[in-house]
Amino acid sequence: MVLSICCGLSILLCFLFSSSLLDFVTINLGLLPLFVGILYSKYRNGVLLVVFYIVLYLLFTDDVNLPSFLLDTGVLVYPLLFLSVTHFNRKCLLIKLQKISIYVFIGASLLLVSPIVESRAGWTIFTRADSVFYLVAYVVTGCFMIYLIEMTLERIELREQIRRISDSYIVEVEKMRQITDRIPFCITSIDRFGRIQSVNFPLLQFIRDKGKLQALVKEQLIGQELIRVLQMVLTSIPTGIEKALEGTDTANELVYDGSHTYLISSYPLKSYSDEVTGAVVIGQDITELELLRSELGHAERLSLVGQMAASITHEIRNPMAVVRGFMQLMREKSPSSLDHYYKIVLEELDRANGIISDFLSLAQNRIVEKEECHLHDIIHDLSPLLWADANLRGQSIELKLSEHVPDMQLNSKEIKQLLLNLSRNAMEAMEDRGVLTIETIAAADNVELRVSDTGPGIPKPVQDKLFEPFYTTKAKGTGLGLALCISIAERHNGTIVVDSEEGRGTTFAVVFKNAPHG
Q: Which domains can be identified in the chain, with CATH numbers?
């Protein structure tokens, strides 16, 4: 549309400033913008240009007749132009120049023939060298117009491509920024001098929290040396960053900072010429992963314990039963003065048998049969045994049972074992007149069974190892009681939480999650 308007204005100017060649031929270059406008415009715009040209011709021409009209307006060339419109714009510049040269030559020739047809005195096209110049000038001017238009269109297309690429680049950059800000990793890119070029939001938040710089913004980090920034927030600095800047393809290392463990990965950024231009550094807090790995090792050890228990059960229990039977028989036939020794031997055999039973219980990492029962019924069934133990130790038991605890899917035998182990551990930790408290608490989505004592409490280093198999602080302990408790709790979709402070007692809370649904 813009080109059609420009061609129309050009036609008007050509008519306004037209002149005559030697008083015979009218010098009017209006055919050039007309032909160009038809070739580059749609059919409708081309027709409008033709009508506009004819109207101007009629207005600016004094003596109009049919022959002069047909020759001066170039009407005979119009069909060729309209037939070429479809394919003209698909051709290369050279073909376009050839076509416009032909059309312009024909149109200019018709203008030169017009005086002969009208029999103007003194004019002969073949005797005038000026006519050759006229034709050449017409053709050259037409080719020059095509060249300028093509160059202009090419620049416009190039500018449009640059704009589209720029818009696409901006969109992709913003998309990439949002992606990196939502990735739960700390990501930064640095130049070859180790200066920060970009950071994502998790890294910014990490630096804010560790460095207590809540007002820190990304712009303040840009241009800073990454090593110096990390020195502000970490006690140990990764060395893989320097290796990445030296061109090492991958540099992964673990960085320990207090109780946290971080995996730092550094990758070099290279140009097309394989020159290192910087590096990208990715940090991930793998503390929980390390804990899971530790738990996996714990599970593997439990599996090993299960295999050991399964293999030694029949190999050891049977001869132990035989030995115990013969010891009882020998005791009956021995003098009473040896009863004390037989008692010690039998107790040790029972203790060894108890250790084997604990092994087997700990190895039972399988789905146990459960039935709907009430936790309080299990506590009441076990309370006589607990009271008997407490009376022997000069201690007392206090029950605080909630009225809102629902029925749950439980294995009563295992829950009794769990409660008995926790209660006896609590009694052994207290002196005379100690109080053992068994409490139940019902919440919206869980039920808690709390076993508390008034003992000396458990030091923090010991708390971290309480549930490890074979770890014990007792002289004759096996270190399997609490490991068995946590195993039972997990089989009932629960966990055990320890709350202890030296000098103020200890509470073991067994939390049954989603307890009403089993």
A: 2-157 (1.10.1760), 183-285 (3.30.450.20), 291-363 (1.10.287), 371-517 (3.30.565.10)
